[in-house]
Specification:
single chain; alpha/beta; Arc Repressor Mutant, subunit A; 2 domains; four-stranded mixed β-sheet; 8 helices; 13 strands; about 25% helix; globular; binds zinc ion
Length: about 270
Amino acid sequence: MEHQVFHDLSLKSSQLFQMDHLFQTSSYSIIFETKNISGKLRFQENPKQLIRIKANGEMDAFECPAAQVRRKCELLGDWFQNRNINMPIYGAVVLAFPKQLVELAPKKTKIFFPSQLPSFIRTFPQEKKPLGNLKSIAQELAAHHQPYIPEPICQAYDIPRDDILTGVKCQKCVTLGMKKIKRSWACGKCGHHDQYAHIPTIIEWYLVVGENMTNKDCRNFLHVDMKTATRILQSMELLGTGGKRNRTYQIDFKRYLQKSTKFDCIED
Ligand SMILES: [Zn+2]
């Protein structure tokens, strides 16, 4: 059956929810929640919890992935309903470790190892009546993906922004305040040159200071002029919102950290 698979898809209905994998056809959806927890697993029903028993007998409790995936099915159902899409949504839990021991499996939710997935998908009827247009549903899903932005430390712990030390960090001697030189950055202390030194500094700003970086924020944090700040912000594949004057930039951490490509150095 024609289908499309999405990985790490985050959508917003009544709340933000993230799906590890979504298998989408024109007549049904399957949400897969992936777990890679070592040890023996017990899916406890009452209260709903996942208990992990380590080899030394130590036990930890986690939120039940079966309950998690059921909640995501409901949230995706709401998201579809708001768009007049009506189709059944199924959920399953995938255990990443093929040798995982499961002491007690969940009652209502399917649980698999990755190798069992193709045969699970084949249990669904091949020629079901289409309940929607796969192409337009897939486009709609992709268009509404919400970037993953963790709450910056200053915001989470009420720390004033002015308390944060600024300057581009030298990755060699950890001194702050590398100087911008032609096509690179130079450390005044150890003499190290690094054309990509601004990248970890910008990422750090998003983790520590704020979600929306303006040109002025960039200037102040990296100690550069307006032109250089503009070039840096444009070179980093950030998400831009707002007009020319009040433009702010956001970072999608998941996409950013998954990227293995090298970024261009800034042209001067
Ligand atoms: Zn240095």
